[in-house]
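hi!! sorry for the late reply, been swamped w classes. u asked for the two structures so here they r. pasted raw, havent cleaned anything up. first the sequence of the first protein and right below it the C-alpha cells
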Amino acid sequence: MTVKKTLPYGTWPSALSAEKVASAAPKINHIQSCNGLITWVESRPNEGGRNVIVGRSKQGLVTDLIPAPYSHHSKVHEYGGMAYRLLENSLYFVNASDQRIYHQTIGTSSPVAITEAGARFADLIVDSTNNRLIAVCEQHNGTSEPENYLVSISLEADNHRLEPLARGADFYAYPRISPDGKSLCWIEWHHPNMPWDSTQLWQADIDNHSLENKRLIAGGDGNESIFQPQWSPDNKLYYVSDRNNWWNIYSADNGIVIDMPAEFAMPLWQFGMSTYGFVDANTIGCLWTQHGVWHCGFVDITKGTLTPVPCLYQSMQAACCSSDGLFMVAGASNIADQVIAASKQGIVETIYSPSSLDIASEDLAKPESINFPTANNTRVQAFYYPPTHSQYQGEDKQLPPVIAICHGGPTGATDCSLNLKIQYWTSRGFAVVDINYRGSTGFGRDYRNRLHGAWGVADIEDTEYAIKFLATEQKIDSQRCIIRGSSAGGYTVLSALTFTNTFKAGASLYGIGNLETLASDTHKFESRYLDKLVGPYPEQQNIYHQRSPINHIEQLNCPVIFLQGLEDKVVPPNQAELMVNSLKEKGIPVVYVKFPDEGHGFRKAENIIRAMQAELDFYCDVFDLVQEP
C-alpha cells in the first residue's frame, strides 16, 4: 500500500498539465450512417480548432474525409451544429471560413463550392428524387434581423440555384424527407420562444420542387417543445415532445411510444442533435437521461417496451441508427468520449477511440451524485468531485477549497462524463461541485421552467445551498469557496459574487455582467431569450437593472478573473470590459485575459492552455497557495 505524502490542499503537483488537457481526445459529435460508413465530426484543438469530418468503413478503416484547411462549421444561430450530409460517395458540407456549401467526391476530388458567399446554411439533407439539397438558411442583410427559412439548393451541374421552400417563422430546424420521398417535415418556432419552450411540427407533401398541403402535426398550444422529428423506414412520422412534462417519444399516428419520467431529448442549442433512430420499422434505438445519468436501449414499437442495454457509459449523445444497431458518442467518469455501437442483443463495442487516456484511474476523482434541498425546499442535483491524487493527501484537520461550477445555457445540464478540466482541479487538491441548478434540462419541463422569471435568483440560491450542504457534510472549507462559469454560467458567477458573500473569488469565462446590454446586443437566436428568464424588455427594465452585477459593483468585494474571446458575437467583449474597468476603479484585484482569435468558447490548444494556467495562477494568488513542482 502506497503511503501518501501530506501537502496542503490546492498545492499538489499534478501530472495533468494544461497542455495535456488541451491535447486530450478531440470533441466528437454529429454521427451519421450511410451504406455501412459511419461518419462523425471531430473538433481538434491542436489543429487550431478545425472540425474534421471523419469516416469509418465496415472494415474498420478510419480516415479524414475532408482535407485541411477545410473545416466543418455552420454559423446559423451562431452555435451551428450538423451541417454535412453524405449520399453514397458524395459529401456535402458547410465550410467554416466562408460558410459556403461544398461538394466532394470521397477519396477522388477536392471540395468544390456550390453556393455563393453571403448566406449561412445548416441541417443539410439530400432530396435525391429532385436532385437537390434542403437546408436551413440564414440570410443576413446587415441592417435588420436575419431571416431564417428552409431552402432548396439545386444539384444540377452549373446551376445551383436557391429556392425558398418555407418561410415566415422566425426559426426552422430538422427538415427531414420521408423514405418514399413524398413528404417533408420540419419544426419551426417564433420569438420570444426558445426551442425548448414552444415549437411546432409541420408536414407537407413534396410536389416536384414545391411543398403542398402544409399541415400542423404537433405543438399547436404554445406550451409544447418538439424535438427531432424522424421518419421510420415505413414512412411513419415520430418525434419527441414534452407535453406530459417529460421529453418522450411519440408517433404522429398512435401517440406516445414510451411513457416514463425520463428525458429523450436535450435543449436544441445546435442543429442535428439526436437521441434516437430506427434500426428497422419496429425497433427504435434511443438514449435517455434520468437523475443526471444517460442510458441507452431499444424500443419494440409493436410491444411498447423499452429494453435498456447495460454498459459502463454514463454520458451519451449523437445517436444514429442503422440495421447494424445504435451508434453514439459515449463516455464515463473515467472513459474519454468515444464512438460506440450497441446491438439489440445487448452487445456494446467501441468502434473508435480517438486517443488513450494517459492518466491512472486512482488519479481521477469519481463524481458523487448529491441531492440537496434549496429555497422552498426544492431538490437540486449536482455532482461532487473530491480532491484526488494517488500520491498526496491533505493536511489533518484541513478541508479543501471548493470550486462551484455553473454550467452554461442556462438551459443546459451537466453530467458525470470525464471532464479533464474538472480533473485538472481535483488532481491539485481542489474539490469541485458541478450543479444542475433549477432550469437545467434532464429533470422535466416543470423543473426547467422554474428558472422562468428567476434567472439571477434561483441559480444563485442553488449554488449557495450546494456550498452549505457540502460544508455541513464536512467535505469543503466554506471559507475558501470559488465560483466559475462560462457564458450564462459566467452571469451566475458575477451575480453570486455581487449579491452574496458565499464566495471568495470567481472566474467568468465570456460571461454576462449587464443583462440590458445582452438583451439589446446579441444575435437573433437569443435576442428574446431573456423574455422568459427575466421578463419582457424594455417593459421590465427595472428588473434587468436590478439583476445586472454591473449596476451594483459596490457590492462586489472579492477578486475576479475574466477570460474573453474578442470575436465573441454571443456575449460581446464589452460585457467583460465594463466589469473589469469598474473593479479596477474600485481597487478590487482583477485579471483580464483576452483572446483576439477566439469567439464564444476557446477552440485552439494554445488558448485553452493559456486560459487554464492563468486561472490556476489567479487562485494561487488569491489563496496564497504555492504549487509544488
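now the second protein. again sequence first, C-alpha cells right under
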Amino acid sequence: MMRMGGVDDDDKLDAEQAKQVLRRAMRMAAPFKATIAAALGFVALSTLGLLMGPVIVRYGIDSGIDAGDRTVLRNAVFAYVGVVALAYFAARQQYIFVNRAGEGFLRAIRIRVFDHIQKQSLAFFDRYQSGVLISRMTADIESMAELVQWGLLQFIAAVFLIIIALVLMLGLSWQLTIAALLVMPVIIIASRKFQRDSNAAYLEVRERVGQNLAELQEGISGVRVIQAYAQEGEQTRQFVESNRSLYRSHVHSIRVSTWYFGLVEAMGIFASAIAIGIGGWLVERGDVSIGTVVAFILLLALLFEPVQQLSQLYNTVQSSAASLDKLFTILDTRPDVEGGHRELDRHGELVVENVGFRYTNTDASVLRDLTITVADGERLALVGPTGAGKSTVAKLMARLYDPTVGSIAFGGVDLRDATLDSLRHRIVVVPQEGFLFGGSIADNVRIARPDASDAELRDALDAIGALERFDSFEEGIDTEVRERGSRLSAGERQLVSLARAALVDPAVLVLDEATSSLDPGTEAIVEAALDRLMTGRTTIVVAHRLSTIRNADRIAVIDGGELVELGTHDELVGLGGRYGALASAWEASLPTL
C-alpha cells in the first residue's frame, strides 16, 4: 500500500533484485562515465595519500629519530605534509566530480520520468494517484541522492582503503595483523544485526514521515472547513500525535546507531590496545621496530572507519535500489494510447461503431455496443443520468482512451491509426473546468500552440468574443493569473480554455459539461463564446442544461452505457421516452418569472 512521502511496504528489495536495478542504473549513467572515471581517479589518489602517512611516519621514526639523522627526519616531515596536501586536494576534487556526475544523473532521470509521465494516457493516471507520482519525483529521487552524491564515493573509498590498509598491515607485521583482527568476528556479527535493525528503523521513520506529511497536507488543504467548524484544536491534537510518533521513531533509529557505532569504536580501541601490547613485546624481541608499531596503529585506526561506513551504506543502497525500482516501473509503462502514422483530414464524419469500454482493473463495462455517426459540421448533444457513460463517450471520441471493443474513425481513418499530433489538432476537448498554469493569460492560451504569434493569439481571443474583456484589464492579456487562475473568475478561466481551442482551430470540438460549474450570469457569457467557437465545426456536447441541449442538431440519450434514443429535441420529446422525461424534469426545475 502506498503512503504519502514515497513509503512502500516493499522499500527493501532482495539482493538479486537490487543488483539488477543498480546495473540498469549504471547503464543509464553511461553519459557521465568520463566524470565518474575522473572521480574514481581522485578517490584512488586521496586514499593512497591517506595511507602513505603512516608509512612515512614509520620511515621518519626508524630512519630519522632512532638513527639520529635530522635530514631524514626533515625529509619525512616534508613528505608527510606533501601527502596530506595531496590527499586534501584529491578529496576536494573527488567530491566535486562525484557530485557533478550524481547531480547530472538525478537531473537526467527527473527529466526522463517527467517526460514519460507527460506522454501517458488518462488510463495511467487512473492507476496512479497524483500524490504517488509526486512522491516518485521527489521522495524517491531524494532517496537516491544520498547514494549517488556521496554513498558510492564512500563505498569505493572504503573498499579501496580496507584492501590497501590490510596489505600494508600484513607487510608491516603479520603477527600484529592477526592479533588485531581477532575483534573482527564481533564487528561482523554486530554489523549484520545493525543492518537488520537499522533497516527496520529507517523504514519506520519514512512511514512516520509520510503520515506526518499527510496530516500537514490535510490541515492546510482543509483549513477552510476546519475553521468553519472551529476544529483547529482537534487538528492540532492529531498533528501533535503524528509528530510524537515521528519523534519516537527517530529516537529509536538513533539508539540503533548509537550502540553499533559505540561498539565499533570500542573494538577499535581494544584492537589498538592489543597492537600496542603485542607490538611492545615484538619490539623488545627485536622482531619489529618502534616505527612499525606506530605505523601499524595508525593504519588500524584508519581501518575501522570504513567498516562503519560500509554498514551504513547497506541501507542506503537498499533504499536507493527500491526507489530506482519504483521509477523504472513507471519508465517501463507504455502509454495505452499510442500514435499511428496517418494524418487526419480537416473534414469528415465521426463514426463510433459497436464500441464497448471498461476502465482498467474493473470488470464492469461502462459502454456496450454503442454506434453513432456524427456528420461533418453537426452538433450532437450527449445526455443522460449521472454515471450513464456520457463523458466516457466524449473521451473515446477524442481518443483520450481507446475502446475495449469496436472502433472510432474520423474521415475514414481509425483514430488508432492517426498520428497523435494530427489527432490533437483535429479533435480538441474543452473540459468542465479548464486548468490554468502559472503565468499570464497569454501564456495560458499559448499552451495550445506554443509557436503561435501574438496576432494569432489575439485573433483566437477575438474569435470567441473575449479579447475586449481581457484587454480591459490593467495589464491586458499579460495579466498574471496566479496559482490555478485564482485571479480570474470561473467564467474567465473557462474563456481561456475556449481560446486555447480557438487557437488550435480544430475540426471536432468536444465540450465536456463546459458550463456546468458556472453561475447563470457567467454562463451566458461563456455560452456566447461557445456559440462562436462551435460555428462551422463538428461539435460533441455533454450537458445537463436544456438551454444548451436544445441548440444541438441531434441528441443522443445514453443510459446504462447504451444508446437508448437518438433524434432532434422535438422528435425525442414527441416520443415521450427517456429524453421526454428528462426534458420535463428540466423544465419543471426552471424558476418561474
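hope this helps!! also noticed smth abt the second:
The radius of gyration is 35 Å.
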